[in-house]
Amino acid sequence: MRPMDTQVNTLLPFMKMHGLGNDFVVVDARARSFDLTDGQIKAIAHRQKGVGFDQLAVIAHGAEGNNADAHLTFYNSDGSTSAACGNATRCIARHLMNESGSETLTLTTDRGTLFAKEAGEGLVSVNMGHPQLSWDEIPLAYEMDTLELAIAGAPTATGMGNPHCTFFVDDAEAVDLAAFGAAHEHHALYPERTNVQVAQVIGPDHIRMRVWERGVGITLASGSSSCATAVAAARRGLTGRKVQIDLDGGTLWIDWAADGVWMTGATEHVFSGTFTAEFLDRSR
Fold this sequence. Notes:
single chain, about 280 residues, alpha+beta, Diaminopimelate Epimerase, Chain A, domain 1
């Protein structure tokens, strides 16, 4: 990335948001263009010396001619990029709907074009697109059945613009997720690393799920992980295609519909602030 030109403006505004405790720093590049270096992203992610986030999201104008309301780019706390971030997309959709007064939005990401809408009662829905179910789309290292991988526990592989590995377990609370997630994020079957979920079916179309996000670690929630888990459960005949998923930070409702995987849940804009030029210069 090119270093940001801090001479244009000594302060860079940002918003702190979260979806069920899955937290984000959001910067708006529509007013003026800028780039953040890897060092700056990691510094902002630091929970003691920066702001702290699971993902950082940049809002830009939609590309000319595609009729999108905005384009979103996502970075993990280790500075790596992610094509998809469901909860951040919902948070930003709420912000943009409040800004425009519209109840529907078209957003573009590296994952593709996503549609968002007001769901009532403070909830926002985003269509995360169709899941990627073939080994080369996810991607995996070589051709195989993605329903049950040749890994202890026979997890299911799913792509939602980012790779996922879902383990169905008898007791999600009993799993040492810090050790389990770290061990599987870098599994040789996943050349781009993977998000790791442990999921327990606790009732009809009702799942308890915990998540380890690649490039981040344990998070209170993950939208794309919830979509991947719902798809995996439906493919394995454990649930129907509409499920409630209870995460450490709250609940999401997932509907694997004919037009894609819809995710619905709450969002919160916690505060707004500005980064100083001194902080950004020091962390280049």
